Amino acid sequence: MQSAVQNCVTCPVRGPHCFCNLSPATVQELQTIGSRVRLRPGETVLREDSMADRVYVVCRGKIKLTASSADGKLLIVRIAGPGDVLGLTSLLNNVRHKVTAETLEICDLKAIGRADFLAFMESSRDVGRSAAVSIAWEYEGMLLTARRLATSSSAAGKLATALLDWGRMDGAGGESLEFRMPLTHEELGSMAGLSRETVTRLLGKFRREGLVELDGERMVLPAPAKMESLYC
Amino acid sequence: MQSAVQNCVTCPVRGPHCFCNLSPATVQELQTIGSRVRLRPGETVLREDSMADRVYVVCRGKIKLTASSADGKLLIVRIAGPGDVLGLTSLLNNVRHKVTAETLEICDLKAIGRADFLAFMESSRDVGRSAAVSIAWEYEGMLLTARRLATSSSAAGKLATALLDWGRMDGAGGESLEFRMPLTHEELGSMAGLSRETVTRLLGKFRREGLVELDGERMVLPAPAKMESLYC
DNA sequence: CGGTTTGTTGATCTCAGTCAATAAGTGTGG
DNA sequence: CCACACTTATTGACTGAGATCAACAAACCG
């Protein structure tokens, strides 16, 4: 039980789009509110259509966000990581959640009730700013997703763009992109709006063309530029 | 030249997701910064790939936001109206614009330079909050768009969902949705990810089925629930 | 072990994109 | 007012990409 991130003040998670990127005084205050939660892989953090009565700050682990349509088809919205906030947009809009969040790994979260969070936002001016930056970052990602879905006409284009987006978000920014790909073909299909079988076929094609290398969960895109020019 | 909205303090635009929904003192300050711009229909407010060096608050008129892919296909992101802010997410993320904004009518805008806006945000705590709420609202809309694009498999589903989304955003919330539809078939196609011809065919089909009534720019969806259950 | 999820490949079929031709509307200038 | 150009809408025919169905292999797991 020692390894949970216990202290916002000493926590090293401070990316540029990280919600916790606050002034020292405000971090102190953040430390005093909310409660810590530890979840095992596969647990549900928040559920579509439920009321947004609290927000969760991700301290450790990755969390899959999905949105579903009436007939059960899924869209993988994004994979949230440390520094992200879950449920914030729904809470601010005072509407029900439109996404389901499910842990992929062991996760540490900080849960903050609605009233506490709003009070926190009123109390320090950098909270609103940080929330805005955080949501703005999510928004830009969502925009890329929507554009990809709307404008890539071919299945190859959709899958290639989805892989490139993922790799650029997750991996190092070198010439060849290398990253973990924990999703099944079915889930990749959900991201790109394709069927499971089509994902299999296309990955095979990409591999034969030398655009994708696969080794278990490890995925490498050796020539992202070429991939983009060919299919996107 | 009298009709331009000249004063933030007396301006009546104060929706729940409106950026200008600020405390009186902050509105006073807003009034003192930035400069007013009037644009005619069809003019460009901001351009994809340009730097986000200012934000625009929409005071009057409607503005079409589009995102384009490498091969020139368009996605209509949304139609912005009074109280919306343009360019805010790009400015906060310090990246180039990912959308192009073009006026549909005569528009009054308030332009605020990057530095001024950031200073404004630092000066009053409700600015950050209001910005966060504003972006959160855009985010939710973007999420709906992406979900629609990803999960509606059939063309009819995509178009029906696009029309329903549009009507619910724009029109009254009664049993039958009635609203202005200023978009051409081509543009509707861009919203839903369809070709122009398919839009024509589907609108004809919907009309024959009594799901859509058209009279010039006026569009009525007499049975949104039925439409949703049939196609979404 | 058996059962379930995941990956792979082939065959078929349908939906919607594309091409083409035409009509209808809209504005412009003579 | 008409001729003209241009945009937008409409309909038909064709075709191809990808979903679906089906069968099976491989991995995973209690």
List the helices and strands and how they pair.
The structure is a homodimer of 232-residue chains.
Chain A: H1 24-32, E1 35-39, E2 44-46, E3 54-60, E4 63-68, E5 74-80, E6 85-86, H2 88-93, E7 100-103, E8 107-113, H3 114-123, H4 125-151, H5 155-170, E9 177-180, H6 185-192, H7 196-208, E10 213-215, E11 218-221, H8 224-231
Helix pairs in contact in A: 3-4, 4-5, 5-6, 5-8, 6-7
Chain B binds a DNA duplex (30 and 30 nucleotides) through residues 153-155, 184-186, 194-201, 203-204.
Would you report the number of β strands of chain A?
Answer: 11
Strand order of the largest sheet of chain A: 1-8-3-6
Largest sheet of chain A: 4 strands, antiparallel
Return the string of H and E elements of chain A. HEEEEEEHEEHHHEHHEEH
How large is the share of residues in beta strands of chain A? 15-25%
Spell out the CATH superfamily of the largest domain in chain A: Jelly Rolls
- Could you tell me which chain pair has the largest interface and how many residues each side has? A-B, 52 and 51 residues
**CATH fold label of the largest domain in chain A:** Jelly Rolls
* Helix amount of chain A: 40-55%
How widely separated are the two ends of chain A? Answer: 47 Å
CATH class of the largest domain in chain A: Mainly Beta
Q: What's the number of helices of chain A? A: 8
Shape of chain A: elongated
Task: Briefly note the structural class of the backbone of chain A.
Answer: alpha+beta
Q: Specify Rg of chain A, calculated over alpha carbons.
A: 19 Å
Q: List the uncertain runs of chain A.
A: none
